[in-house]
Write a structure and sequence with these properties.
mainly alpha, 79% helix
């Protein structure tokens, strides 16, 4: 296999690990409400770190944006805003169907929509070529893995009898998860349709690995709007503004900021890895990124005790699903090998 391809897959895998780990620090912030920790994550991960990295790695980044055509900028911002809606729906969906089931459903749909739709729209001829057939086959295998993970999540919730709404309102929760997955895939749409910004960043002197940063920064800024509105709504409704001063504020603020660093670190590395994979990097790299994201999140869930007390049946479903997802990565990677 080509060394550049191996490097790209490795970087995308690292990106997935960072993304799947970003929420782990929130488990140490039990003294805060969801809207408190999530707003801190949104500020650091969607605004502060992206713009710092953007200005630090792209020369004359302001000129990159000023020189871009309005349709490109509008598409990137709109897709970012839609992705932000998907992120908000994520929280609503998992509260109804459970963490494990909701996470698997949403990211599985995101991986599929974020890869197949751009391929069909921009490179329809590739659907019957080696790359396209491997992507379709890998996505199909991945769906099988997601089914096993969904079964694992439902079995675990039944075993633990947490009463978190797996059965009550399940249909509504399932619909929310589906829409969350669709909207969340808009982030990759930004990368696909905002390529003009990457080209202009290269012309401005940015390295190939960092040239995608103007896209990501503008995308997540659009996504911040939806998250900010929802968090402020909850802070006002629940009167939880004062919670920012409760618990262990210094530690909680540090943990909250680390969630943003881990999350955007995953985005930045994904951009680097996708660029290393060549012309189809943003299409082939996306399902790998999302699959590793799922596996990393499952790992941290197990470490934090989420699967403590689960039956052997639930654990068997879980690890079977993880194994199938790894097989899906192998199928997609082999199809892109020279």
């Amino acid at each position: 296999m080509d060394p550049a391809l191996l490097f790209g897959i490795g970087v995308v895998t690292l990106a997935g690990i960072l993304q799947g780990s970003f929420a782990a620090p929130m488990k140490r912030m039990s003294g805060w409400q969801w809207e408190n920790s999530w707003l801190l994550f949104a500020l650091s991960g969607l605004i502060v770190f992206p713009w710092i990295i953007n200005f630090a790695t792209v020369p004359n980044v302001t000129s990159v944006y000023l020189g871009a055509t309005p349709p490109t900028l509008i598409k990137v911002v709109v897709f970012g805003l839609l992705w932000g809606v998907g992120a908000t729906l994520f929280g609503l969906g998992i509260s109804r169907v459970g963490m494990a089931l909701g996470f698997a459903l949403i990211l599985g749909i995101t991986a599929s929509f974020g890869s197949l739709f751009p391929l069909a729209m921009l490179h329809p001829e590739q659907l019957v070529a080696k790359h396209g057939l491997a992507l379709i086959a890998g996505t199909t295998v991945m769906v099988v893995g997601l089914v096993f993970l969904a079964l694992a999540g439902r079995a675990r919730e039944q075993d633990l009898r947490t009463g978190n709404g797996v059965r009550s309102g399940f249909t509504v929760g399932l619909v929310i998860c589906i829409f969350s997955g669709i909207f969340s895939s808009m982030m990759n749409f930004s990368f696909v349709f905002g390529d003009e910004l990457r080209v202009r960043a290269l012309q401005s002197g940015a390295s190939n690995a960092m040239a995608a940063n103007p896209i990501w920064t503008l995308t997540v800024t659009g996504g911040f709007v939806a998250n900010f509105i929802y968090c402020v709504y909850l802070l006002n409704r629940n009167r939880t503004w004062a919670v920012f001063r409760e618990g262990n504020p210094a530690t909680y603020w540090a943990l909250g900021i680390s969630t943003g660093l881990l999350w955007f670190g995953g985005i930045a590395f994904y951009g680097m890895g996708a660029a290393s994979l060549g012309s189809l990097g943003n299409i082939v790299g996306w399902p790998i990124f999302m699959t590793i994201d799922i596996i990393a999140a499952l790992f941290w869930g197990a470490v934090s005790g989420e699967w403590k007390g689960a039956s052997r049946r639930a654990l068997a479903y879980n690890w079977t699903g993880v194994g199938v997802l790894l097989l899906a990565i192998a199928v997609i990677s082999a199809g892109n090998a020279s």
